[in-house]
Amino acid sequence: MASRSPKPPAAPGSDRELRADARRNREQVLRTAQRLFAAEGLGVSLDEIARRAGVGPGTVHRHFPSKEALYLAVSIDQLKQLAAEGEALAATGDPAALFTLLSRMMSSGAENAAVKSALLAAEFDVRTAAPDVAADLTSRVADLLGRAHAVGVVRPDLTADEVMALVAGAFAAIRHANAESSPERSARIARLILDGLRPRTTS
């Protein structure tokens, strides 16, 4: 069978190069927005996000016509990152990788609690807006949970739906404790919740 010849590099100014450039700009805006929202709150303007991302204001407004659209995109991007992390953890073969992923999910939720609250206030549901992405993350959690069950590092009666519900509950607990801005306090709350997933020991 003849080997496939590699794609030639995109010519300067070609549609393919422009599409790649637009994707890079969008990703840079998302990363910058995520960082600024977590560090400085939701009052950061789209123009300031553009300046910090090193792109023109028109680029940001073209991709994200409103703050709500940017909030939603940031949240969906986080789910994609977490799903990718789950896939990478599965490849390590670590039976306790479930706890690593859940810790990261809770940390991500704490860091971006303001964005999630804004979406709730605007009646945006990430699971409805990006069902495939949400389902992919749930699938990664279910896979890691199955591996954890196989070696007995989690409660045998624990289900993937319960795990996802507990992660959502962790966000609420962290907000209730006003711990969003304290990595130490939010991490402690996460540890307390994760400890409840481990097998019960008999004395």
TrEMBL record:
Keywords: DNA-binding, Transcription, Transcription regulation. The keyword Signal does not apply. This is TetR/AcrR family transcriptional regulator. Residues 45-64 bind DNA. Residues 1-21 are annotated as: Disordered. InterPro entries: DNA-bd_HTH_TetR-type_CS, Homeodomain-like_sf, HTH-type_TetR-like_transc_reg, HTH_TetR, Tet_transcr_reg_TetR-rel_C_sf, TetR_SbtR-like_C. Residues 23-82 form the HTH tetR-type domain. Pfam families: TetR_C_43 (PF21597), TetR_N (PF00440). It comes from the Bacteria. Residues 1-11 have a biased composition (Pro residues).
